[in-house]
Amino acid sequence: MNVIVQIDELILHGIAPKAAGSVGDALRGELARLLTERGIPRTLARSGAMSAIDGGTVHLREGAAAARIGHQLASAVYGSLEAE
Fold it and tell me: What sign does the dihedral 65-69-70-75 (CA atoms) show?
């Protein structure tokens, strides 16, 4: 089974614009890892497509590295897929 995850828009309030690309890269990488290791959540497997995903609120420490932020965001997104 092939899975294509397309993120059309990622809104990052409070993140420096120069860090946004690194955060997005870390998000994609961690989300790919979660999907590979934990599998595709049933909701996503059933529906096949989702127009939007609300990852909820993610609390970050001031000065957190872009990779850490991306990993936290990916965990929130994956968690919201499991909860659906």
Answer: positive
Instruction: Quick: pLDDT tens for 13-47.
Output: 888 888 999 999 999 999 999 998 998 887 666 66
Cα–Cα distance measured from residue 33 to residue 78, given in angstroms and rounded to the nearest whole number = 11
Instruction: Say how many Å lie between the first and final Cα of the chain, rounded.
Output: 21
Q: What sections of the chain are H helices per DSSP?
A: 17-38, 42-47, 66-83
- Rounded to whole angstroms, the Cα distance separating 2 from 56 reads 27
Q: Which long-range contacts (C-beta less than 8 Å, at least 24 apart) are formed by 2-11?
A: 3/35, 3/40, 5/31, 5/32, 5/35
Please answer whether residues 60 and 81 qualify as being in contact, where contact means their C-beta atoms are separated by less than 8 angstroms.
no
